[in-house]
Specification:
297 residues; Nitrilase/N-carbamoyl-D-aminoacid amidohydrolase; six-stranded mixed sheet; 28% strand
Length: 297
């Protein structure tokens, strides 16, 4: 089975949901007319990134008119959109929504909120508490948002949940003349290739571009196959659109040749995690555990 995916490396307008929604509508129709099956936009593609006190102004409930418009658009092609989700308890989340066939099939709330350097997400947003794979027309997928990708445990959980395709969306800023000089871009390139090969999955990565508050977003969106090979790469620093074919037979081939994932032991992982949690609860200050007793040879 194969499908066409379009990467939309765009420059959202900060705080202007109607304008950004219009960009989504235009690009999705163009991609669908060209035969694309899935259209992927970056993190917070409906709102822009450095929102701060604008978060409550741009937050969308899942029954809002804007989300309903995206549901309708997904009858032409499936799409992944980044937005601020407002919950019933008036919490706000950096969310990724997967829309397909007129339905909102899955929402991932960003789990890891960076709050260091130029980042201050925990001040304005709540963190998600789930990592799940979900079924689509083209097999099981999982979505992660930006900082989530810097935590291998998140990708490992998605793999244990039997994902075939990992979609990562980002608003990753950086400084430099070229992406080749940017540590963040180099790290993302290595992470994505490693995840693809290690977990024998396609990785679709879409990062935004443009300036906000004097900060530049570097782009560099790409698709990497289960062998760790980059099959599509968008340019740094500029808006760009590209469509690439993804063949799930490549996932099948990789997993048949090296069936490592079948050897995973989630029961062992669960036991060891429980032990670690109990140990941390007993030593909340981070003191090292007592030495293990020696075992006779």
């Amino acid at each position: 089975m194969s499908f066409q995916v379009t990467l939309c490396q765009i420059r959202p307008a900060l705080g202007d949901v109607p304008r950004n929604l219009g960009i989504h509508r235009k690009l999705l129709h163009e991609a669908a007319q060209a035969g694309s099956d899935l259209v992927v936009f970056p993190e917070l593609s409906l709102t822009g990134y450095f929102l701060r006190d604008l978060v409550p102004e741009v937050g969308l409930r899942l029954d809002s008119p804007e989300i309903n418009q995206l549901r309708a658009l997904s009858r032409h092609a499936a799409l992944v959109v980044g937005f601020v989700e407002e919950s019933d308890t008036f919490d706000f989340y950096c969310a990724a929504g997967y829309f397909e066939g007129g339905r909102l099939r899955h929402v991932h709330r960003k789990v890891y909120l960076p709050t260091y350097g130029m980042f201050d997400e925990k001040r304005y947003l709540s963190h998600g508490d789930q990592v799940r794979a979900f079924d689509t027309r083209w097999g099981r997928m999982a979505m992660l948002v930006c900082e989530d990708l810097w935590h291998p445990s998140a990708v490992g959980l998605a793999s244990l949940d039997r994902m075939h395709v990992l979609i990562g969306i980002a608003s990753s800023p950086g400084r430099g003349v070229s992406a080749a000089e940017l540590d963040t871009a180099q790290t993302y390139e290595r992470l994505i290739a490693t995840y693809a090969q290690l977990f024998q999955t396609y990785v679709i990565f879409v990062n935004r571009v443009g300036y906000e508050d004097g900060v530049n977003f570097w782009g560099g969106s790409r698709v990497v196959d289960p062998a760790g090979r980059t099959v599509c790469e968008l340019p740094a620093w500029e808006e760009a659109i590209a469509t690439v074919e993804i063949s799930l037979s490549e996932v099948r081939r990789a997993r048949a040749l090296e069936p490592r994932l079948n050897d995973e032991r989630p029961d062992l992982t669960a036991r060891e995690l429980q032990r670690i949690l109990q140990d941390r609860a007993a030593r909340p200050t981070g003191d090292p555990p007592p030495p293990r007793p020696e075992v006779d040879p």
